[in-house]
């Protein structure tokens, strides 16, 4: 009788391991082999550290690329435009900056496989903070009271965000089966319908009324960017599960998410670049940071249920942390862009860089290679922000 009972249990367990239930609880760490031996708090700390490191690399890369462009322009001014025809592509510093940029973006991408999107996205303010520090330490810019206040608010905000983030990470070690279950959520279908309607309405207003409002442009970029974040987190999670020995390459949803990631990333950069061309950085930077971060948080909460298990007080503290980051970015941006720039500051890029893709910082020089030719902003190397086109 004992042998029969044990045989029945063994058979039941074997059947349970091969069956794919219609409703799977992705929040159960016991059911997630990729999370074995790692708590959610540890995963959030690792993801946050990787995101901060990636954003620091992005900041250094922006300064390196900006230095390469301004050095080239200064040489042209000294030798004459006709005598100097060298390209920034021949400058090794520009290529170092590009490699650092790629490394930083890969870091941001990897961070999504550990920490919730609602944590990684606000940490994009690290780039703002680092650029301000570089401007003061290396470019000998004046340290403003707004810098100190903004940095203090951003650091406190980041602490609150990390400390009061979701208690359970729904997509750690994400599998294709779990991801498909998320896509079937009624709330996600509603969210997607509302977002598509909003994008279509904004597009219609911009095209038919010929409105170039920075709010509409950045709102369009951020709405699309929320799906860039969702897809990036999905791809990163699937790759992490694969690296832990549970291959997801046979899942069609993996390749669908890669396509969504690529398409939305290109569209997001397109609208963000348009906003940077048509408006001053003092307007674009803080506005886009707020829009993008809020869109990324909402996308993570709706799609990955990142606020599951949180109490109202924890959500309130998380929200306060985000608001402090927003305010910190605003203070730092205004402090530097309002100050007159000297010739010695020609290395300085935008003090604050709007997040796109996985935290990607927007610098007009980074689009020269894509569009060809030279940047229209190169003729004014001492400026840290693009002019406001009338």
Strand order of the largest sheet: 1-2
Beta-strand residue percentage: under 5%
Name the structural class: mainly alpha
Number of strands: 2
Major sheet: 2 strands, antiparallel
Q: What's the pLDDT, averaged over the residues? A: 76
**Termini separation (Å)?**
88 Å
Helix-strand topology string: HHHHHHHHHHHHEEH
- How many helices does DSSP assign? 13
Radius of gyration over alpha carbons?
Answer: 23 Å
Unreliable stretches: 1-36, 339-356, 359-390
Q: Into how many domains do the coordinates divide?
A: 1
As a percent range, the share of helical residues equals 55-70%
Global geometry: globular
Q: Oligomerization state of this entry? A: single chain
Written account of the structure:
With 390 residues, the protein is mostly helical. It has one domain. It is built from 13 helices and two strands. A two-stranded antiparallel sheet has the order 1-2. Strand 1 (355-356) and strand 2 form a beta hairpin. Helix 6 runs antiparallel to helix 12 (312-337) and helix 9 (214-243) runs antiparallel to helix 10. Mean pLDDT is 76; it is low at 1-36, 339-356 and 359-390.
Show the helix and strand layout.
Elements: H1 2-18, H2 40-79, H3 92-111, H4 117-120, H5 125-137, H6 145-163, H7 176-183, H8 186-208, H9 214-243, H10 252-278, H11 281-304, H12 312-337, E1 355-356, E2 360-361, H13 368-371
Helix pairs in contact: 2-3, 2-5, 5-6, 5-12, 6-12, 8-9, 9-10, 9-11, 11-12
């Amino acid at each position: 009788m004992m042998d029969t009972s044990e045989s029945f249990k063994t058979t039941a367990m074997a059947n349970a391991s091969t069956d794919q239930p219609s409703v799977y609880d992705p929040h159960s760490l016991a059911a997630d082999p990729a999370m074995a031996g790692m708590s959610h708090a540890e995963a959030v700390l690792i993801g946050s550290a990787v995101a901060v490191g990636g954003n620091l690399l992005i900041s250094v890369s922006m300064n390196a690329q900006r230095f390469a462009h301004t050095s080239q322009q200064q040489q042209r001014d000294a030798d004459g435009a006709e005598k100097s025809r060298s390209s920034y592509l021949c400058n090794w510093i520009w290529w170092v900056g590009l490699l650092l940029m790629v490394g930083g973006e890969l870091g941001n991408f990897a961070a999504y496989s550990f920490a919730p999107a609602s944590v990684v996205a606000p940490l994009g303010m690290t780039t703002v903070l680092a650029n301000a520090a570089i401007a003061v330490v290396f470019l000998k810019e004046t340290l403003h009271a707004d810098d100190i206040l903004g940095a203090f608010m951003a650091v406190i905000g980041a602490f609150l965000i990390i400390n009061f983030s979701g208690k359970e990470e729904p997509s750690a070690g994400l599998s294709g089966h779990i991801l498909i279950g998320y896509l079937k959520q009624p709330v996600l279908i509603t969210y997607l319908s509302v977002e598509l309607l909003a994008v279509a309405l904004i597009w219609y207003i911009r095209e038919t009324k010929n409105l170039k409002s920075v709010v509409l442009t950045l709102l369009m970029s951020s709405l699309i960017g929320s799906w860039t974040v969702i897809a990036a987190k999905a791809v990163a999670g699937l790759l992490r599960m694969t690296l832990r020995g549970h291959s997801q390459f046979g899942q069609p949803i993996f390749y669908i998410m890669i396509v969504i990631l690529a398409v939305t990333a290109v569209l997001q950069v397109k609208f963000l670049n348009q906003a940077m061309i048509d408006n001053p950085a003092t307007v674009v930077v803080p506005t886009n940071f707020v829009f993008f971060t809020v869109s990324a948080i909402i996308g993570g909460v709706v799609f990955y249920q990142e606020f599951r298990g949180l109490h109202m007080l924890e959500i309130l503290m998380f929200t306060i942390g985000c608001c402090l980051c927003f305010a910190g970015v605003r203070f730092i941006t205004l402090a530097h862009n309002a100050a007159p720039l000297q010739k010695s500051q020609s290395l300085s890029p935008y003090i604050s860089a709007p997040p796109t893709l996985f935290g990607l910082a927007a610098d007009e020089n980074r689009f020269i290679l894509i569009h060809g030719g030279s940047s229209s902003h190169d003729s004014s190397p001492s400026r840290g922000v693009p002019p406001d086109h009338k």
